[in-house]
Amino acid sequence: MPLTRKAYRAAILHSIADPAEVGIEASYEYFEDGLLVVENGRISALGHASELLPGLPAGVQVEHYPDALITPGFIDTHIHLPQTGMVGAYGEQLLDWLNTYTFPCESQFADPDHANEVADIFIKELLRNGTTTALVFGSVHPQSVNAFFAAAEKLDLRMIAGKVMMDRNAPDYLTDTAESGYQESKALIERWHGKGRLHYAVTPRFAPTSTPEQLTLAGQLLTEYPDLYMQTHISENLQEIQWVKELFPERKGYLDVYDHYQLLGERSVFAHGVHLCDDECARLAETGSAVAFCPTSNFFLGSGLFNLPMAEKHKLNVGLGTDVGGGTSFSLLQTLNEAYKVMQLQGARLSPFKSLYLATLGGARALRLEDKIGTLHPGTDADFLVLDYNATPLLSYRLKQANSIAETLFVLMTLGDDRTVLQTFAAGQQVHQR
Questions:
Q1: Integer angstrom CA distances of residue 363 from 54, 69, 173, 319, 425
Q2: 66 — phi, psi (to 5°)?
Q3: How many other C-beta atoms are found inside a 10 Å radius of the C-beta of residue 190?
Q4: 3-class SS at 45?
Q5: What percent of the chain is predicted at pLDDT more than 70?
Q6: 3-state secondary structure of 140
Q7: CA neighbor of 287 nearest in space, from 251, 255, 239
Q8: What is the pLDDT of residues 140-199, one digit of tens each?
Q9: CA-CA distance, 109 to 145, in Å (whole number)?
């Protein structure tokens, strides 16, 4: 293949460490007039434009964005593909919401044409909002995952997804069996895992909808394919936690159910974790597991406030999730706007640099992909965004008053949304243009 090389000039910012571990100042790199050089889908150089431009080979095209900020692509560590058509469903908390809205919506994915149509809309929404990697729940139907991976593969996206395993406490039209869930998952793994930039996640929906037999087979898949992901839900809602206690009276608590079936590990991501206790956070951290913090969803469904300071105390990996449709937006900028309020309500602060970390490098670490995505370090995949300072009249006016990159970043995260994302690049190719 001929060498393709292109450069992008703008203000450039990326996280290089967790502010909770190294302090804010040491957690990021910022180039007021920066240059990002991309070769064959990877980043080959990053630095000050004044230092890098003289060494660029003749003929290399330089795209210049005088009023924009380049950041790594955003990483969504918890989102449901089949719920795209029911975002903003009124009036219920978690368990009633599942029965009233979610399960009927997911039943439509028995039709492969419907699955293909929604997968296309879903991926366009992700890219329009600057999300270049997501950890995705399909429905119980294998065709939901086939449709999603086929659409992601065409654009060479780094995506992770899995078929939901659910063999009880759900409508008959939406359940598999322990054995069929295992076999269907296995067929999807063989077809998609490791193909291009695609990865498979074993996906028991949550403990109440899987029998002990199904959870055992989910653990068996992780043993058979050691580099798989595992995703599920935990401690989202108090009623749900009580239900788990009734279904698994022999276990110490919600996390202990998953622990018993060997579902904790370095590529295991547990969504929500609103009501985790200290001991559970410590156990998650000890096993290398991660939590997806989903503030828009936790507000919308009235689930509660995620305790980020407690997670930080235990050095627990935390990513950010939109959770659509429990959440209300595909935008991680909007999700960070809500995350800030979650912290305010707990008497804590969320710095814009910690927010950037959660949306990029934090998510990459939660997924064990920090050597490939989440930063703009040379050698990593060229998944990045161009954020437009003039996306809306209010944003443009407000940013003219900003005196620092910290203030600029915070304003982007409170006033920004899909309109702020001018362009999205994946593996060096433009995959969205506003």
A1: 35, 20, 34, 4, 18
A2: -70, -25
A3: 10
A4: strand
A5: 99
A6: coil
A7: 255
A8: 999 999 999 999 999 999 999 999 999 999 999 999 999 999 999 999 999 999 999 999
A9: 10
Give the distance, in angstroms, between the CA of residue 56 and the centroid of all CA atoms in the same chain: 34
358: left (phi over 0), alpha (psi -120 to 50) or beta: alpha
Tokens found for residue 214: 């199904």
Q: Considering the entire predicted model, what is its pTM?
A: 0.97
Q: Which residues have C-beta within 8 Å of that of residue 416, sequence separation ≥ 6?
A: 331, 333, 334, 387, 391, 395
Q: How far is CA 8 from CA 75, 227, 428, in A?
A: 21, 34, 11
- DSSP-derived letter for residue 100 is I
One-letter amino acid at 76 equals D
| Token pair of 352 as six digits | 């814009």
**Can you state the angle between helices 332-345 and 352-359, rounded to 10 degrees?**
130
Burial class (CB in 10 A: 0-12, 13-18, 19+), 271: buried
Q: How far is CA 361 from the centre of its chain?
A: 11
Q: Give CA angle at 93 (90, 98), nearest 5°.
A: 80
Give residues with Cβ within 8 angstroms of 111, minimum separation 6: 143
Please provide the size of the chain in residues: 434
205: helix, strand or coil: coil
Task: Tell me the C-alpha distance between 321 and 331, whole Å.
Answer: 10
Amino acid making up residue 358:
L
Phi, psi of 421 (to 5 degrees): -85, 105
Residue for token pair 């989440």? 374
> Nearest CA to 244 among 229, 258, 230?
258
pLDDT digits (tens, 9 = 90+) for 105-132: 888 999 999 999 999 999 999 999 999 9
Round to whole Å and give the CA distance between 242 and 260.
18
CA distance 415 to 333: 8
Q: What gap in Å lies between CA 208 and CA 185, rounded to an integer?
A: 19
Write the DSSP string, 367-388. TT-TTTSSS--TTSB--EEEEE
pLDDT of residue 384: 98
**Cβ contact 230:268 at 8 Å:** yes
Residue type at position 344:
Q
Contact assessment for residue 7 and residue 56, using Cβ atoms and an 8 Å cutoff? yes
How is 104-143 classified by DSSP, letter by letter? HHHHGGGSHHHHHHHHHHHHHHHHHTTEEEEEEE--SSHH
Query: H or E element: which one contains 282?
Result: helix 278-286
